[in-house]
Amino acid sequence: MASRPALESPRMRLEPVWLHHTLLDGTWWPESADPSLELPVMLSILQDAHGPVTRLLLSAAGWSARPHQVVMGGRPVSIGYCSDQSPSMMRVFCADGRTFILRVAPSGLPLQRVGGPAD
Questions:
Q1: Is 115 part of any domain?
Q2: Which of 45, 27, 11, 9 has its CA nearest to residue 115?
Q3: What's the number of domains the chain is made of?
Q4: Is 112 inside any structural domain?
Q5: Could you tell me which of 83, 80, 53 has the C-alpha nearest to residue 69?
Q6: d(Cα 32, Cα 34) in Å, to the nearest integer?
Q7: How confident is the model at residue 113 (pLDDT cuts 50, 70, 90)?
Q8: Which ranges of 25-90 would DSSP assign to H, the alpha helix?
Q9: Range of the domain at 38
Q10: Least confidently predicted of 32-36, 39-43, 112-116
Q11: What is the pLDDT of residues 51-67, one digit of tens each?
Q12: Does residue 111 belong to any structural domain of this protein?
């Protein structure tokens, strides 16, 4: 597995985001389509903010590989893929039973603020 250089700033924003009249819980900007490289960085940020994550549900489209598990702190995080889920969405399941949805911005897009619905 290739190592990843340290990031200067996280490519994740955990705050409510309006997208197409849907309230999301944050946005994640992966730098590549390789979930083996991207998910550990993202999971580390999520677990610091929300506690242990037990499962991720990603779109079946848009990834260069489809690992079914990532190990975080010696604990497995299950990864599922859904063909009818939008590539721009990810569902996150936490150990305490909470579930939330993140917007997944295509890799290569610059970080940008996503505003609320038009006034």
A1: no
A2: 27
A3: 1
A4: no
A5: 80
A6: 5
A7: very low
A8: 35-50
A9: 28-104
A10: 112-116
A11: 899 999 999 998 999 99
A12: no
